[in-house]
Amino acid sequence: APLVGRTGVASKPIAVHTSEALTTHGPMSTELRSLAAAMLAHQVVGPRPLDTPDDYQRARFMVAGVLFGLYYRGSSYVFSWFAKQGTSPLTSQPTTALVTAGPYALSRNPALLLVWIFHTAVAVAFNSWWPLLVALPLTYAYLMLITVPNEEEELEKLFGRQFREYKQQTP
Predict the structure, then answer these.
(1) Which of 59, 68, 104, 171 is deepest in the core (most CB within 10 A)?
(2) Rounded to whole angstroms, how far apart are CA atoms 24 and 159?
C-alpha cells in the first residue's frame, strides 16, 4: 500500500482522531525530531532568547497558546477534508481518492503553513530562536525533499492525468 496522505490523498474510510493522525502518522513526528535537534543546539551552543524580558512571560504564554490553538484547529480543519470524503489522512491506509476541495484547492500541501505556526508557537513559549533556526528548516527540508516528492510520485502513479492537472492548477 502506498504511504501517502498529507498531500491531499484520501484513503479508505476509517474513524481517526486528529491528534492520532498528527502524532502517529503525520508531520508531528518529523517536527518532534527536529525540535530535539533544536534542544540539542540549545544545550551545545547555548540559549538564543527572543529578547523578551521576563516581565512578558505571561504575554508570551498567551501568544503561544493562541498559536498552538491555531495549529490544532488548523490541523483539524485540514484533515477534516479527508473525513468529508469518507477517507482517512493516515499514511498507513491505501490511497483511493484525491482530495482537491477545501484547503487542498488552494495548496497541495496546506499543512505546511501549520508546521510554521507550530514552530513559532514553540519558539514563543520557550523564548528561544532555536525552534525557528534549527527545527523549522530541518522539518521543511525533510518534508519538501523527501516526503512531498515521494507522495507526489505515488499520486502520479495512482491518479495519472487527474493528479497532473491538479498539480498544474494548484501550488
Answers:
(1) 104
(2) 26
- 122 contacts 131 by C-beta, under 8 angstroms: yes
Other Cβ atoms less than 10 A from the Cβ of 33: the count is 13
Q: Name the CA dihedral angle for 149, 154, 155, 157, rounded to a multiple of 10 degrees.
A: 130
- Name residue, grid cell 491505501: 94
Residue 1: predicted pLDDT: 36
Alpha-helix runs per DSSP H in 17-147: 18-23, 27-45, 57-84, 111-125, 130, 136-142
Distance CA 143, CA 149 (A): 8
15: left (phi over 0), alpha (psi -120 to 50) or beta: beta
Global pTM reads 0.72
Asked whether 99 and 87 are in contact (CB, 8 A), the reply is: yes
pLDDT digits (tens, 9 = 90+) for 40-54: 877 787 777 766 666
Instruction: Look at 18 and 144; give whichever has higher pLDDT.
Output: 144
